[in-house]
Design the sequence.
C-alpha cells in the first residue's frame, strides 16, 4: 500500500498520535496505512515496520539521524512547523534523533488502541477508541 503524505504525517509520531487521529475519525486511514497484509488489523510488527519506513523517508540525507532541518522540511511540506521533541525522542539531547532513538520510542498509541492487549489493533478497537474519545 502506498503511503501518502497525510498518512506519513499521522505516522510521524510512530503510533504515539494514533489515539488522537482515531478520536478525530481518521483511525481507519491510519489503520489502513499500517496494515501491510491487508487483513483489516495491524500487528505490533506492522506498526514497527511502518515506523521504520517513516524514519527512512524522513531521513532525507540518509545519515541515520533526523535533524531539525529534516523535521522543518517535513513541516514545510505539510504547512505546519514540526520541532524535534527534547528529552523524548532525542534521548541524548544532541538536537537530532538517531534511528535507535526513533525506533525505541514507546508505542503508547498502539497500546491504548489495543484494548484487549493481544498485540493487534482491529477496526473494532479503533472504533471503540474513537467512541471513548468522543464521549459516546
Sequence:
Amino acid at each position: 500500500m502506498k503511503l501518502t503524505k497525510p498518512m506519513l504525517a499521522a505516522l510521524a509520531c510512530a503510533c504515539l498520535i494514533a489515539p488522537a487521529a482515531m478520536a478525530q475519525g481518521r483511525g481507519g486511514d491510519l489503520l489502513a496505512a499500517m496494515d501491510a497484509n491487508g487483513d483489516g488489523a495491524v500487528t505490533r510488527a506492522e506498526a514497527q515496520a511502518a515506523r521504520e519506513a517513516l524514519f527512512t523517508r524522513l531521513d532525507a540525507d540518509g545519515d541515520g539521524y533526523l535533524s531539525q532541518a529534516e523535521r522543518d522540511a517535513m513541516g514545510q511540506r505539510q504547512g505546519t512547523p514540526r520541532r524535534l521533541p527534547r528529552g523524548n525522542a532525542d534521548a541524548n539531547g544532541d538536537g537530532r534523533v538517531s534511528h535507535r532513538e526513533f525506533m525505541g520510542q514507546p508505542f503508547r498509541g498502539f497500546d491504548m488502541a489495543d484494548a484487549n492487549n493481544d498485540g493487534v489493533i482491529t477496526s473494532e478497537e479503533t472504533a471503540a477508541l474513537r467512541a471513548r474519545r468522543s464521549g459516546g
